Amino acid sequence: MQLQLDGISKQVGADTHIYPLSLSLVPGKINVLLGQTRAGKTTLMRLMAGLDKPSSGRLLADGVDVTGVSVRKRQLAMVYQQFVNYPSFTVFENIASPLRLAGQLGEAEIRSRVEAVADKLHIAHLLQRLPGELSGGQQQRTAMARALVKQAPLLLLDEPLVNLDYKLREELRAELKELFQHSQTTVVYATTEPQEALLLGGNTIVLDQGRLLQQGPTLEVFHHPASMRVAEVFSDPPMNLFAAQVSGAQRAAELGGDIALPLGPHLQALGSERYTLGVRPSHVRLTPASAHDYRLHCEVELAEISGSDTYLHTRHGEISLVAQLPGVHELAPGSAVALYLNPSEVFAFGADGRLAGSPQRRQAQGSAPWPA
Amino acid sequence: MKKRSFGLILYLIFAILPIYWMVNMSLKTNEEITGALSLWPQHLTFDNFRTILTDPAWYGGYINSLIYVLINTVLSVAVALPAAYAFSRYEFLGDKHLFFWLLTNRMSPPAVFLLPFFQLYSSINLFDTHIAVALAHMLFNVPLAVWILEGFMSGVPREIDETAYIDGYSFPRFFIRIFIPLISAGIGVTAFFCFMFSWVELLLARTLTSVEAKPIVAIMTRTVSAAGMDWGVLAAAGVLTIVPGALVIYFVRNYIAKGFAMGRV
């Protein structure tokens, strides 16, 4: 389905939840709504579904104006952050309910469809239970099965994995991508996590405090964030940012103190003014990756182990720098460490926060966009 | 430990003594009741109960009471369900005020409404009918029912409603198939509160009826005859009056506390 938002805004009382925005979803693909909490993801999704009425603007489905059309008459499915099932129905009846209401299918056809989708989501053995007897992950799978079985042209997923524990989340995330890969459904997936956006691929729409910041193919947005805010939202742990003065002659950025970071080839066009430079934590390393790497002597403040990565919080004079290092590193606070960053991987943002230069992507890279 | 159980036993005795005494009286003859003190019936008799269950003037009172209590309970819950849903789910002009002022009906003593009800029902030929008492009691029960049900309904996440609409449920179908089962405990408790109020209310019930719909509580207050007071029969009537309440309370015993907190625990 081609869903189009035309100047949609939402005001509640004196608060603006969504500032007027226009966007069109890429049909048959995953559209990720990326933004931190209170960015307006849920509000926007409810507007897309027709659960709430926009204060202004129009909503077009396949070119037909559906603004204000009751959600019952729209063809869509939705999965909430909370596990929403009908508590008095068995899992089977829960999944079957949209099919029964459509009233076009025979009992045998309903049974086979429910079983097929339950099989895909690994809840086939739970069909006779009540939702209250299931674990959180199984409840959410039931809710997803009910949304999927309908085969609606528009599927809205509002942070469906956020209330699950870490392991389950990883598992379901991978399965979701599989599920959507071959479907014709236009999927909208709201999340706060950049990783999730990268893993699902497709298209990304970055929201912040009710404003649409950027939209485009996920990798495009990731590699060329239009503004500092987008880079912040689309980076976990947050991007390292430094105020810098670019000096003309040496083509270097003075970061304060004794640091003069040489500018990479993509930043040669910068004028001699103040910029904010950004480096992703994953681009800060313990060992040089190339001869051009810039070495920075830092003092360790904290080594935080998260999953299979270590987040190293360090300081050099006034500058604090976070490095995301693969593997487990035990570095005592206060110890000295040499960190390397490549000038060709540095982002530059102008005084207004807009992107002034982003690293060129090496096409040959070919590996996962989120560095290991 | 021993001290505590002693206190509890003492409390239990005090609590149960009036009820025991009534049961005790109902199984005695009038001579024994008015005679010397006896802790249990010396001449056990079921005559008092037999009188009530065979005399239409007596058992008719129970039937009348049950009829208007049931009408009142069903109507109150039926009216309160949609109202409570609206208060719980929608925002409309003055909703908070209206919700609060609903309860003002319960802030005035029922006697205040005696005269208007009596005059109104007389002039529209509703006097001495079951529906008259049921409608009069609804004035007090509907606000309470709305408050209790609203509490239970607000405990059901709104997302369930929305999911049902997205799935394609029509409102009535959603309400009956999905929503009612979710708040069945609340409906039970609400029905209990309506039942109890209507069952024990005396003033309106007595004033708005004369012969056809005379409730048991009214009959019980008129047992003084030329032959004097019929203590035994009166006690037996009292015992039988407790029974329906006890039965109803048994079914909702687990939810009573939540009901008293208007469903907001």
TrEMBL record, chain A:
<keyword id="KW-1003">Cell membrane</keyword>
<dbReference type="InterPro" id="IPR015853">
    <property type="entry name" value="ABC_transpr_FbpC"/>
</dbReference>
<dbReference type="InterPro" id="IPR012340">
    <property type="entry name" value="NA-bd_OB-fold"/>
</dbReference>
<dbReference type="InterPro" id="IPR003439">
    <property type="entry name" value="ABC_transporter-like_ATP-bd"/>
</dbReference>
<dbReference type="GO" id="GO:0016887">
    <property type="term" value="F:ATP hydrolysis activity"/>
</dbReference>
<keyword id="KW-1278">Translocase</keyword>
<protein>
    <submittedName>
        <fullName>Glycerol transport system ATP-binding protein</fullName>
    </submittedName>
</protein>
<keyword id="KW-0067">ATP-binding</keyword>
<dbReference type="InterPro" id="IPR027417">
    <property type="entry name" value="P-loop_NTPase"/>
</dbReference>
<dbReference type="GO" id="GO:0015408">
    <property type="term" value="F:ABC-type ferric iron transporter activity"/>
</dbReference>
<keyword id="KW-0547">Nucleotide-binding</keyword>
<dbReference type="GO" id="GO:0055052">
    <property type="term" value="C:ATP-binding cassette (ABC) transporter complex, substrate-binding subunit-containing"/>
</dbReference>
<dbReference type="InterPro" id="IPR013611">
    <property type="entry name" value="Transp-assoc_OB_typ2"/>
</dbReference>
<keyword id="KW-0472">Membrane</keyword>
<dbReference type="InterPro" id="IPR008995">
    <property type="entry name" value="Mo/tungstate-bd_C_term_dom"/>
</dbReference>
<dbReference type="InterPro" id="IPR047641">
    <property type="entry name" value="ABC_transpr_MalK/UgpC-like"/>
</dbReference>
<dbReference type="GO" id="GO:0005524">
    <property type="term" value="F:ATP binding"/>
</dbReference>
<dbReference type="InterPro" id="IPR003593">
    <property type="entry name" value="AAA+_ATPase"/>
</dbReference>
<dbReference type="Pfam" id="PF08402">
    <property type="entry name" value="TOBE_2"/>
</dbReference>
<dbReference type="Pfam" id="PF00005">
    <property type="entry name" value="ABC_tran"/>
</dbReference>
<keyword id="KW-0813">Transport</keyword>
<feature type="domain" description="ABC transporter">
    <location>
        <begin position="3"/>
        <end position="234"/>
    </location>
</feature>
UniProtKB/TrEMBL annotation, chain B:
<keyword id="KW-0813">Transport</keyword>
<feature type="transmembrane region" description="Helical">
    <location>
        <begin position="130"/>
        <end position="153"/>
    </location>
</feature>
<protein>
    <submittedName>
        <fullName>Glycerol transport system permease protein</fullName>
    </submittedName>
</protein>
<feature type="transmembrane region" description="Helical">
    <location>
        <begin position="7"/>
        <end position="23"/>
    </location>
</feature>
<keyword id="KW-0472">Membrane</keyword>
<dbReference type="InterPro" id="IPR035906">
    <property type="entry name" value="MetI-like_sf"/>
</dbReference>
<feature type="transmembrane region" description="Helical">
    <location>
        <begin position="174"/>
        <end position="200"/>
    </location>
</feature>
<keyword id="KW-0812">Transmembrane</keyword>
<dbReference type="GO" id="GO:0055085">
    <property type="term" value="P:transmembrane transport"/>
</dbReference>
<feature type="domain" description="ABC transmembrane type-1">
    <location>
        <begin position="62"/>
        <end position="252"/>
    </location>
</feature>
<feature type="transmembrane region" description="Helical">
    <location>
        <begin position="66"/>
        <end position="87"/>
    </location>
</feature>
<feature type="transmembrane region" description="Helical">
    <location>
        <begin position="99"/>
        <end position="118"/>
    </location>
</feature>
<dbReference type="InterPro" id="IPR000515">
    <property type="entry name" value="MetI-like"/>
</dbReference>
<dbReference type="GO" id="GO:0005886">
    <property type="term" value="C:plasma membrane"/>
</dbReference>
<dbReference type="InterPro" id="IPR050901">
    <property type="entry name" value="BP-dep_ABC_trans_perm"/>
</dbReference>
<dbReference type="Pfam" id="PF00528">
    <property type="entry name" value="BPD_transp_1"/>
</dbReference>
<comment type="similarity">
    <text>Belongs to the binding-protein-dependent transport system permease family.</text>
</comment>
<keyword id="KW-1133">Transmembrane helix</keyword>
<keyword id="KW-1003">Cell membrane</keyword>
<feature type="transmembrane region" description="Helical">
    <location>
        <begin position="231"/>
        <end position="252"/>
    </location>
</feature>
